[in-house]
Design brief:
- By secondary structure, this protein is of the alpha/beta class.
- It has two domains: 232 residues, Aspartate Aminotransferase, domain 2 (3-Layer(aba) Sandwich); 128 residues, Aspartate Aminotransferase, domain 1 (Alpha-Beta Complex).
- Helices cover 38% and strands 14% of the residues.
- It is built from 13 helices and 14 strands.
- The longest helix has 21 residues.
Length: 385
């Protein structure tokens, strides 16, 4: 549905932010088959389904070890526990991410140390990261935000100089690459989420920790089952981070489709770019940028617009799904007030929080739906600017 000369959408359609039904319908029979298989086995937690999923994902991601866990949040928590992060330890990360990135540091008694973002990619600023290193730094956590890798080479160098591990928060970035290599295998550990909205989503919570370090892998596997190498014999204090067999089985059905789903998202992102240009909006809307040495998998397609909240309200009034990731940076969250940060300290993150808006980008999105989204957005901008 092309925009008219007056910027008005000529008809109304429904464009949800995400349509999981559209993804599910073609694979329904295969999913039902594996769910039935797990139910018939009556083995619901860990076991052969999880082990097979771990092998499949290790091969897919090009890592030595893949350890299935109960959620993306628990992946971060477990990775930090396995690497010995504890009370008083400083962990440097972006102030602009999903809460779990910083929340897990605080849960372990560590001190989150926030830095600003690159305004183009929304990922952690390497120069700011280097400036934040102190003698108390114990880890650095870059976030591959929205499905695009952080600039890893300088971050790896910073971590090496500081003698601390790099933990990749790849929750939104399964299949993203940096200089031809999949993310998740650059740091001491990589953390993934299988929340249903992710490019590879489970039918509930699930996560994964990747590593190429045999010692770290052994610690991860031990600590996800309360620190026991065998039942009732606990070498360390861990937690219950086990993955359900049902989730692993569903993920194994979905994994062969991941590459195609990702390419569909990338095609939709390219189509948006063209549609915005055709509508004459490229000077009024800031589009996402894919760095030339990285493969963006577009877990979100995030634009910047003036008067973002008014634009969002208009899109929703015309049945166009959209979302804000993230309206409040960590340094402005009430729960982190004790850290002493102030508004204005990280201007790029604060500006992104005020201006960014995610549009529908799922692989099953049609060209007609995308034309409608851009048309309604043009209409919104004509009313707000």
């Amino acid at each position: 549905m092309a925009a008219t000369d007056t910027g008005q959408a000529s008809a109304t359609m429904q464009v949800p932010m995400l349509d999981l039904q559209a993804q599910y319908r073609p694979i329904r029979d295969a999913v039902i088959d594996v769910v039935t298989r797990v139910c018939d086995s009556q083995r619901f937690i860990m076991g052969p389904e999880v082990e097979a999923m771990e092998r499949d994902l290790a091969a897919c991601l090009g890592v030595t070890h893949a350890v299935g866990v109960s959620s993306g949040t628990d992946a971060l928590l477990l990775a930090m526990m396995a690497l010995g992060i504890g009370p008083g330890d400083e962990v440097i990360t972006s102030t602009y991410s999903f809460f779990a990135t910083a929340g897990c540091v605080a849960r372990l008694g560590g001190k989150p140390v926030f830095v600003d973002i690159d305004p183009v990619t929304y990922n952690i600023d390497p120069a700011a990261t280097a400036a934040a290193v102190t003698s108390r730094t114990r880890a650095i956590i870059p976030v591959h935000l929205y499905g695009q890798s952080a600039d890893l080479d300088p971050l790896i160098a910073i971590a090496k100089r500081a003698g601390v591990p790099l933990i990749e928060d790849a929750a939104q970035a399964i299949g993203a690459t940096y200089k031809g290599r999949m993310v998740g295998g650059f740091g001491r550990a990589g953390c993934f989420s299988f929340f249903p909205s992710k490019n590879l989503g489970a039918f509930g919570d699930g996560g994964l920790v990747t590593t190429n370090d045999d010692t770290v892998a052994a610690s991860l596997r031990r600590m996800r089952v309360h620190g026991a190498d065998r039942q009732y014999y606990h070498q360390v204090i861990g937690g219950n981070f086990r993955l359900d067999a049902l989730q692993a089985a569903v993920l194994r059905v979905k994994l062969p489709h991941l590459a195609g789903w990702t390419e569909a998202r990338r095609r939709n992102a390219a189509r948006y770019d063209d549609l915005f240009a055709d509508a004459g909006l490229t000077g009024r809307v800031t589009l996402p940028v894919s760095a030339p040495d990285r493969r963006h998998i577009f877990n979100q397609y995030v634009i910047r617009v003036p008067q973002r909240d008014a634009v969002k309200a208009h899109l929703e009034s015309r049945h166009v799904g959209c979302a804000i990731y993230y309206p409040v940076p960590f340094h402005e969250q009430a729960c982190f007030a004790y850290l002493g940060y102030r508004t204005g300290q990280f201007p790029q993150a604060e500006l992104a929080a005020r201006e960014t808006l995610a549009l529908p980008i799922y692989g099953e999105l049609t060209a007609e739906q995308q034309r409608y989204v851009v048309s309604v957005l043009a209409e919104a901008l004509s009313r707000t600017t």
